[in-house]
Queue: 4 jobs
Job 1
Amino acid sequence: MPKTAFITGITGQDGSYLAELLLVKGYTVYGLIRRCSTFNTDRIEHLYQDPHDPNYRLRLMYGDLSDASRLAGLIAQIKPDEIYNLGAQTHVKVSFEQPVLTGDVDAIGAMRMLEAVRQSGRKVRYYQAGSSEMFGNAPAPQNEETAFEPASPYAAAKLYAHWVTKNYREAYGIYAVNGILFNHESPRRGATFVTRKITRAVARIKLGKQKKLFLGNLEAKRDWGYAPDFVEGMWRMLQAREPGDYVLATGESHSVREFCELAFSRVGLNYKKHVEQSERHMRPMDVDYLRGDASRARKVLGWKPKVKFEKLVEIMVDADLVMAKEGREDFRADSGIFG
Ligand code: NAP
Ligand code: G4F
């Protein structure tokens, strides 16, 4: 029987790749979108289907993770087999500026989803998008047994969502899983995250459209993977016999400085001539070193990332060069004033 999935955060990086994957697998995909005064559906534009077509399988519904009654109504209407709760305020630095909103959407939003599932009485498989940020500065490599040390309002909100997902699994027998995902990137990554901020700038500097790139902490290390590999892992978690929690990571860690070095050298430039550090992009507290151990996902789910760090940098720089040449950058601000 073809399955039905409901994705919150479908307009985001991961939501768009996951929607693609599930449509290829024959699912009918419902996606939660927020009403905005401008279009926010760029990342799923290529998947759009005419709703007048009786067989259309990508169905977009207005809603918001802050609106419990709408979420319950949608779950009753859609009757999903699988739910992927990817919607969130996802920027760690912004979470220091908007901690209450971040808690409402990322923590209580997950609770609203789980309550809607519980009250529906339906047998639904639920995926919660957890983050390696929940480990904070706990020693690497981090895996499912590592004690959490959240170091931002974002991480604390995600940790609340993590624990209630586990609690609903144990208390009510709901098939609910936590993915603890390390950073994953792509040409669809939001332009205010450091990788995309760098690759956009590399392309624009190469083409003479930008002079400098202002960044914060260059020594922070992250375990960066490729988003399409990671959404495949999310899907695998909901196909397993038993629900559980899984780390997804590449097992390699690199600094922001190394990312710059490689990205600028891809177009024949030296990052030292173009990158400047700025207080503006420093966080009140940062996570220094993340490197994940995904052996459990490998063993139980057969999951393994395909794209490595060097290839990821190439994919992102090359895609941004094409966009910048065609003048299709999503916004034009020089040194990433928002990032
Ligand atoms: P993203 O590109 O920033 O997308 C976030 C999505 O959440 C967007 O669709 C956004 O909608 C939606 N959203 C924001 N506030 C919402 C609200 N109040 N109600 C409903 N939807 C809302 O994030 P991503 O990189 O795809 O990440 C997907 C999920 O994985 C997130 O939960 C993130 O925290 C988690 N995660 C990501 C990573 C990573 O490295 N990418 C790692 C670990 C965990 P708009 O388009 O309308 O803004
Ligand atoms: O790219 P980032 O903003 O990602 P961060 O904070 O690791 O969070 C991302 O990954 C998490 C998974 O671990 C997700 F849960 C979360 O939703 C998000 O997707 O920053 C990475 C590192 C940080 O140490 C930051 O301080 O890069 C450093 N950095 C240095 N200069 C910068 C900048 N980050 C940003 N965004 N902008 C800068 O100018």
Job 2
Amino acid sequence: MNEKKKFYITTPIFYPSGKFHIGTAYCETLTDCIKRYKEARGYDVYMLTGLDEHGQKIETVAKKQNKTPQEYVDDMAEEAKKLWELMDIKYDDFIRTTEDRHVEAVQKIVQIFLDKGDIYKGEYEGWYCMPCENYFTETQLVDGKCPDCGREVKKMKEEAYFFNMKKYEQWLKEFYAENPDFIVPESRKNEIFKNFIDPGLEDLCISRCTFDWGIQLPNDPKHVLYVWLDALTNYITALGYMSDDDTLFKKYWPADLHVVGKEIIRFHGIYWPIFIHALGLELPKKLYAHSWIVMKDGKMSKSVGNVIYPETLIERYGLDATKYYLLRLMSFSQDSMFTPEDFIERYNSDLANDLGNLLNRTIGMINKYFDGIIPTDAKEETEFDEDLRNTAKEQLKEIEEKMDAYHVRAAIEALWKYISRTNKYIDETAPWVLSKEGDTEKLKSVMFNLAEALRKIAILASPFIAGSSKKILEQLGIKQEDANWNNVLDYDTIKADTKVISQGEPLFIRLDKEEEIEYIRNAMHGK
Ligand code: MSP
């Protein structure tokens, strides 16, 4: 037997500095959707997610809640896992940077860098805010004041460790010359070249001694690692790199895809390849930097009162509607705007109308004309059958091409083209007329083609809306094992006595537009 090809995919590890909103949920949903697609295509997929639990911000939030940082992150890890369970996220491992397995491996990695002379002791200089106990760079200041509290800042220096990035600058340029597609979309790569690589790399400050919620440097424990070296290495420590058991590391590294948000591409596109190269490891294959979900008034923020939490949408509209919307909303390379109007519009038109009605009408007609049995023995075709079959072939190709390039929205659009074509097929063939005229053979062909199209749709929709995909097959009476990506274009998998459900249940119930827009708006304002 052929061994399955492996595919290692990761999300960023999230800062548990507050409740996760739909932006975070998008990132996780996107990764999970790519995982499901790759699995459907026969890959052995390993998906990693987790939390980035160190740093001053966490220390501060914990204090505000009268918790120790450890108590605080323990609670947040529970919350995060609960949310991913609610969202049916199929991750294989959940790494927390406070776990021993991570801390121990990171200290070993730092030691390697120290031994190689890649890390050196120097002086960090920046603008320090006394009350916030935090450094800022010149560009982070707002009107020359602390961006967090608005108070005066003072130029200060402290002893710190640095990673010698300059040493690897030439190598990094060569790496990109040989791997021009390492980052998608290309615009994101161009940005980091323009802003950071072309002007010349700066060494990276990797330690602080102004707070202690972090991993101690093995050679100098009054210093703790300053987030990025700690955070990025999660992708290898989770697989057991530098531990007694590195089976997973041997099996899955290098990562096939790191999914990251656009604002952290600099860390993943510059520092991460350099760290990995400095460790003498194979480089990851690809970075996909997705854009942001934004609101009418800009970034989601509690103080503006425009935050949407995934639970709000899931509880009222269901998991599939929520996932569908997030994946369908986000463009490949540009920020995309969430509005309550658009959410309800998409729900009603794409899900309730296009997909839901197609299933409902098909089930209804098979019950009405053939006592619920899907006819598999039609002796005649209609003039529209061939075009429907061709559309299936064309759109399958389109979906695969788009998904292979991580253009998820475009893949969903291709699927909906097929759904629309199938709906049009009902209007063209007018089964009620065939029935009236007693044209049984053609009527059989139409009912079979509709059931078969829905089987195909269920397979193709499974990476995006797995729950609905399952329900479609259940309502059609088709077994899961008779519906998979390998047989998607076949026309002989529906068994002769397959019986559909006698009373189809709507997949998505049409929503009252005004009422629901009001509901989402209120939720955004915390009402
Ligand atoms: N902890 C770092 C990542 C370390 S990875 C080694 C971090 N965490 S974060 O919680 O601030 O952000 C995690 C991810 O959520 C980022 O990729 C970010 O782009 C994504 N999103 C946060 N808000 C978002 C939107 N509004 N829309 C889409 N994604 C957004 O950065």
Job 3
Amino acid sequence: MADTARIALDGKELDLPVVRGSAGEVGIDIAALRRDSGAITVDPGYANTGSCRSAITFIDGEQGVLRYRGIPIEQLAERSHFLETAMLLLDGELPAREALGSFMSHITYHTMVHEDVRSFYEGFPKRAHPMAICGAVVGALSTFYSDSLDMHDERQVEISIHRLIAKLPTIVAYSYKHSIGQPFMYPRNDLGYAANFLHMMFATPCEDYVVDAQIARTMDTIFLLHADHEQNCSASTVRMVGSSMANLFASIAAGVHALWGPLHGGANQAVVEMLRQILATGDRGSDYLDKVKNKAAAGVRLMGFGHRVYKNFDPRAKILKKLCFEVLDRVHASTPLLDLAVELEEIALRDEYFISRKLYPNVDFYSGIILQALGIPVDMFPTLFTIGRLPGWIAHWHEMIRDPDARLARPRQIYTGPTQRDYVAIDDR
Ligand code: CMC
């Protein structure tokens, strides 16, 4: 196999090194391209650009494969749990029993946020989107923990990681309590990670709230399924911000904001809103699909379908579809949204428009229906994605700051504006 790729430009030939990944992926290393040829590459949306070497997550989008540190997502969803999977992502290996116990204990004992953080919430409008609050409060954590911002000190990094993973569910649950005007519920150290989150969301000081073990397990699995997805928009944002040597809290806050958009982590909210809108019109989906296919208006898409990398079933969607039926059965919820989603999926998978573009259900198609059945308000959905994705973002940030090849992320451009011209005085314009 050739270990160089040759390009010819303006009569000059250039050999570029070929890089091969452990699962056979091939890349052309263009680091010397501009120096040796004067040219750059152009790749809107970076669909063909490898921004780094990474040993965290592998995706084969053609085959519908997702593995964290080599372990298939299906095995992790069935046999692991979120905090163990977080350790796998962060450290590269499944933890030994003692290390796992110590990590879980650190997380448990860092779940409270500083009391002064609570006063921030009073300043946010009641109708504030929880992702806006989440990004703002995560960024503000750096003001409370200025003792642990040195990214070259592994102990400080470790403490920041514990604080972030432990406090994010508290920050998210507080945003919900603020929006509905209920008292904030302190974390409970006798509960597991997902169960404690459900407690902070749904308990009140007036009465006991018993967390259903199966529902807590479902919540945990949802977090686990979202825990990483290699160089997606938000992980790349975290890496990009971190490449300027911004601290971990600032880098993660940037990731939260990147995740908010409806083409990324906001899609689970968009799916449920789309399904409700279709139901309200009395349509069984075919009118809506016609609008999608005719591109009737900018941005009308079958939300929860399609993916930049998967050109086959998203393996997470398969697991979530099964979970969706189990949860709705467990909470005895009526199923019009699920029924409609299944119908839409069936129609779309038979339709030439979706087949030819290789558009399949993604992670967001069924997750929103589950969250809704659990009583989570729609605008909170992306914040749950955020809790899940946090270990992945941290693993990428950590990998980047330890990578000797990492540099300040600073893409180039092809300038298409006016060439040099003279300033014109205001009276002469
Ligand atoms: N519904 C209808 N048409 C679609 C859809 C969709 N959901 N997704 C892509 N297409 C069409 C698109 O219009 C284009 O058609 P044409 O060739 O006629 O112009 C073609 O498929 C290629 O689309 P693209 O926008 O160039 O593809 P992309 O890789 O840039 O977009 C995507 C990926 C996820 C942004 C897109 O599929 C989409 O908007 N999906 C709906 C939003 C969604 O579910 N997002 C969650 C993604 S998974 C969670 C995460 O990783 O954040």
Job 4
Amino acid sequence: MGKIKIIKGDITKLSCDAIVNAANSSLLGGGGVDGAIHRGAGPLLLAECRTLGGCRTGQTKITKSYNLPSRFVIHTVGPVYFEHTPSDAEALLTSCYENSLNLAKEKGLKTIAFPLISAGVYGYPQSDAIKVAIETMKLHQNDFDEITLVLFGEREFEIAKEDYPEFL
Ligand code: AR6
């Protein structure tokens, strides 16, 4: 069985098969983790993203990683929390993880890392976002060598330590 890991850090530094980007539907960059990924990858990432025709909420697109140490970037668009009912937001966020993991599996990728999708600018409550991430990862862990949840902020890492100590 594959391993789920929770770490604190910067996802752009990881050299796994794929890192996941919490993008917006234009796929043309932004702030937060999206900005960090585009800065690290360089301008060729934006050039490839321009050819993709955007991405709908809950869906995914894959690109190369260019100057980043990972091999691929899987771009997914999380829900803006307050634009949906809580249960619709949860279903959409679950789709982000599901579709990213399914796409990675289809491509034969074995190691994948996620940021805490929607839990920054998009306002998803951090503790609920961590639960969606981990519970969805658990359903797919047999298909991967390692699935990593990368937490950037101190507060979200403290929540994860409390709620999921077994993955630290
Ligand atoms: N590595 C890992 N996690 C990070 C990093 C990093 N380098 N930088 C930030 N985070 P956000 P969203 C965490 O706002 O809520 C963008 O402008 C951050 O602490 O990046 O899905 C897009 O273009 C938070 O926990 O994404 C969209 O417009 C998590 O990543 C919009 O923001 C997600 O925060 C998407 O909003």
